[in-house]
Amino acid sequence: MRTLILGFAAGAAWLQTQASLPPYAGVLLWVIAGIGLTASLLLRSHVRWRFGWRSIVALAAGVGLGFYWAAWLAQAAMAPQLALADEGQDIVVTGTVVSLPYRFEQGVRFNFAVEKAVGAKVPPLIALSWYAGFRDEVTNVVGDVQPGERWRLTVRLQRPHGNANPMGFDYEAWLLEQGVRATGYVRPQPRADTPNVRLAAFVPGFGNMVEASRAALRARILRSLEGKQYAGVIVALVVGDQRAIPQSDWQVFNRTGVSHLISISGLHITMIAGLFALGAGALWRRSFFTDWQLPLRLPAQKVAALAGALAAFVYVLLAGFGVPAQRTLYMLLVVALALWLGRITSIGHILCLALGVVVLLDPWAVLWPGFWLSFGAVATMLYATAGRTTAPMPLQAGRWRRLRAAVALGAHTQYVVTVGLVPLTMLLFSQVSLVSPVANALAIPIISLVVTPLSLAGSLLPTPLSDGLLLLAHAIVQMLAQVLEWLGARRFAVWTAPAPPMWSFCWALLGTAWLLAPRGWPHRWAGMLGWLPLLTALPSSPPPGHMWITAFDVGQGMAVLVETHDHRLLYDTGPAYSLDSDGASRVIVPYLRARGIGKLDGVIISHSDLDHAGGAMSLLENVQVGWLASSLFEGHPAVEARRESHRPYLHCVAGQSWTWEGVHFAMLHPLPASHMDIALKPNARSCTVKITAGKHAILLAGDIEAAQEAQLLARSAEDELAADVLLAPHHGSGTSSTQAFLNAVHPTLAIFQVGHRNRYKHPKAQVYARYGDMGIARLRTDVEGAVVLEFGEGIAVTRYRDSRPRYWHGR
């Protein structure tokens, strides 16, 4: 059975690497199931071949079943589709709010189950944003939605689309897993006869009841902790909603390795289930202090198991049914079922059954780090403890001796998990927290045994008792956070290295297995040698005289990484998406971390527009930057931050130049006087850089427009502007890319960094056609994803969506 389940999980994971779905998945699923069953029955009669061949058949059948089961579910999930012609059109939809709304300063986001649509065929589940300021004149409501409400809304939708970058978050896969097949926003009172209006305050249903309960608990916590810094942490511990925790706090939690605790984790679920089981068992054994003699009717152990399982189920519902919570719930249910049926089962079987159920219900779970970390942690503990014998603690042992034994057991478990997950953590995050053992030794008992029970009690008990408990829980979290912040600020807190290749990861796994082997295993310390290639790897770089260019897919904005043999330069930092999210935090910093790049020698911010400078502060806070050059205005936060830290800062000025390992950089624009001309638009001061590696060059033109293009033509020598690759000025707007400028640059390839269906309609059709008429190859990041150029003897081009195609990437 375990072999079959492991094969099933492997098959589902294999499907998630495919560029397209196989045809006839449902038919092939039943065919493979029939063949596997028949082969198993036939081999059962051949006793001498049974063990080896049955395992092989079970593994092969599991892989086939997992692959086609996942394909069958994927086909069903992707079948509801918004027509391309209906993208961006006003559509009137009626339905219910089916998720916990996320409120932010600009508005609110929520999932909407469509019951009826007028004007188009709409998928049954869509994700909507309702922005503040879009006021309905009839009901005077500004995005005030609650779970379970029925609304009639006028919306504009598009098919699922997300930024596509190496080592980046796959938003399209996440939407597919959630069942969301269109995204969009609510229109502000488009017509008097179709107002955005609430039709019912609550639509009965199990899911709506769960989400309404979560919303009520969250609202109660936020009322009690209004204005408190760590209210979002308390909300995450009670209802699993982590969206109110700011990025600055997540950075501290990640650096100290305690982020797994800032949610409804498996540890918390097990603790709550255990408390309810102990309480129910104790009351049942005492017949609720009556003379009913309940244990004679039903054993107290079974009642305790049932109470624990029910408590775990309710808590997991509050958590939003995340993978770690699911894994714990299924394991507890299997244990409870085994106890009720009088069957003794091993922990290995329980873990495999939980794995099978998770993948069966959600084959996309294998795409996320939480899945691998959750099952990896339990598997590591099983490997390091199963079958190991320890001297039992005698009953007459003293209290302090028992306490020391419990502490020693906890410390050993923490050691095993910390060491065992090093290879997986480096593979998934390219970093490992060195202070994690200390931070977890402090945080685990405080969060699990003190803060979480206080938060749950404060959420459920009546006021004013609830307010006091929640304030106490928050005070404890605040004190803990101060300690974690101090730990995370240490220079040695985190070890970073590039994401390892598969051979290095497997070698590290082998070393970890050696390190955690039983006592008596020879030279267990030598297992750490397996980590050396993992932890000491250096970032890859081009040979001297060559360069790599990465044009990120950051939406409507610019961000380009330039790499030479020993230096790295970032040109622009991407757009600001919201007050706490931008192109640097979501795209650039994760990419640099995965590559093992901890320092940028230089950063150029072409000008102050938010689609170019929106990620500046996130970048400066998370990455060491040598010097910063820009045309930013005085008083800009990035400029002030550089000057306060006494780090090099300078204005971009035409005539500046430098050379790194044979690669030449030349600043062509703006002129020095432009920085003093307050009448100029920021676009007119865009830093324009030409980079030459050998016989090939790229021109990064920022947002210069026709007037600046003419100035460059007037003051440039012949062929000074010529480049093989052009980063299209101003994203291909109608005010740039003049014919004369394109003739002077004469590129063979142009890159348009634009957002999917952006409101500016960049690149403009006539400008895009102008490039095509000149025979210039055109690449758009909204279509191709990130574009990587390798400049050497020639120019090699890699398009991310082509190099890593997935069946859910709509093209």
Fold and architecture overview:
This protein has 811 residues and is an alpha+beta fold. The chain contains 28 helices and 26 strands. β13 and β14 form a beta hairpin. The longest helix has 32 residues, at 47-78. It is globular, with a radius of gyration of 30 Å. The relative contact order is 0.07.
pLDDT < 50 runs, ≥5 residues? 134-140
Beta-strand percentage? 15-25%
Helix content: 40-55%
Cα end-to-end separation: 40 Å
Give a quick set of tags describing it.
single chain, 811 residues, 7-stranded mixed β-sheet, 28 helices, 16% strand
Short description:
By secondary structure, the protein is of the alpha+beta class. It is built from 28 helices and 26 strands.
Could you give the topology of this structure?
Blueprint: H1 2-15, H2 25-44, H3 47-78, E1 90-97, E2 102-104, E3 107-118, E4 125-131, E5 150-158, H4 171-178, E6 183-186, E7 197-200, H5 206-224, H6 231-239, H7 247-256, H8 266-285, H9 294-297, H10 300-319, H11 323-341, H12 347-361, H13 369-385, H14 399-420, H15 422-429, E8 431-433, H16 436-460, H17 465-488, E9 494-496, H18 502-515, H19 532-535, E10 547-551, E11 560-563, E12 568-571, E13 576-578, E14 581-582, H20 583-595, E15 599-605, H21 610-613, H22 616-622, E16 624-630, H23 637-644, E17 649-651, E18 657-660, E19 663-669, E20 688-693, E21 696-700, H24 706-715, E22 725-727, H25 739-745, E23 749-752, H26 765-773, E24 777-780, H27 781-784, E25 787-791, E26 795-799, H28 800-803
Parallel strand pairs: 4-6, 12-15, 15-16, 16-17, 21-22, 22-23, 23-24
Antiparallel strand pairs: 1-3, 1-5, 2-3, 3-4, 5-6, 5-7, 8-9, 10-11, 10-25, 11-12, 13-14, 18-19, 19-20, 20-21, 25-26
Helix pairs in contact: 1-3, 1-12, 2-3, 5-6, 6-10, 6-16, 7-17, 8-10, 8-11, 8-16, 10-11, 11-12, 12-13, 13-14, 14-16, 15-18, 16-17, 20-22
